[in-house]
């Protein structure tokens, strides 16, 4: 008899973990996002619950439930709120633009984004109003019907 691989053993553990639950228990755990002891589901328990859901219903569980599958952000990932005269780091600007830091640096060097203020020997900060102006300009350019009307400061579109 061949030895079972580690992943096969793990798959068997996952499949067996919630096998004792009936339909109503599975739905309740999924909607609340807590285990039978009232604690938040671990990754293993979530995988086991999904496995049991698939066994019972023949499909994946809904992802729009009010329980643990609702989109969550960690406090460190939440987008901070800024006033126009506040300053932002390059990382903050990149997060706001949904771009990389190197893209922000490229936008600084080609003039699409004003150079950052130097607030210390190695610290650079962008004014929030400059970032907001860039976003507004990008939105206006996106809505322009003719690409020839757009200004890209020498960069090809």
Describe, in plain words, how this protein is organized in 3D:
- With 157 residues, the protein is mainly alpha-helical.
- The protein has 2 domains: 7-57, no CATH class; 87-149, Multidrug-efflux Transporter Regulator, Chain: A, Domain 2 (Orthogonal Bundle), CATH 1.10.1660.
- It is 45% helix and 5% strand.
- It contains 6 helices and 3 strands.
- A 3-stranded antiparallel β-sheet has the order 1-3-2.
- Helix 1 (6-17) crosses helix 3 and helix 2 crosses helix 3.
- Mean pLDDT is 78; it is low at 65-77.
What's this, in brief?
The chain has 157 residues and is mainly α. It is built from six helices and three strands, in the order H-H-H-E-H-H-E-E-H.
């Amino acid at each position: 008899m061949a030895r079972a691989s580690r992943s096969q053993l793990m798959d068997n553990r996952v499949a067996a973990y919630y096998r004792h639950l009936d339909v109503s228990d599975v739905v309740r755990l999924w909607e609340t996002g807590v285990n039978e002891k009232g604690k938040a589901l671990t990754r293993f328990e979530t995988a086991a619950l999904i496995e049991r859901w698939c066994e019972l219903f023949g499909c994946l569980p809904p992802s729009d439930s009010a329980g643990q599958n609702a989109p969550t952000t960690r406090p460190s990932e939440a987008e901070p709120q800024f006033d126009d005269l506040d300053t932002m780091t390059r990382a903050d600007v990149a997060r706001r633009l949904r771009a990389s830091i190197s893209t922000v640096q490229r936008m600084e060097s080609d003039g699409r984004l004003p150079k950052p203020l130097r607030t210390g020997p190695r610290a650079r900060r962008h004014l929030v109003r400059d970032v907001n102006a860039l976003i507004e300009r990008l939105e206006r350019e996106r809505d322009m019907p003719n690409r020839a009307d757009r200004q890209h400061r020498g960069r090809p579109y």
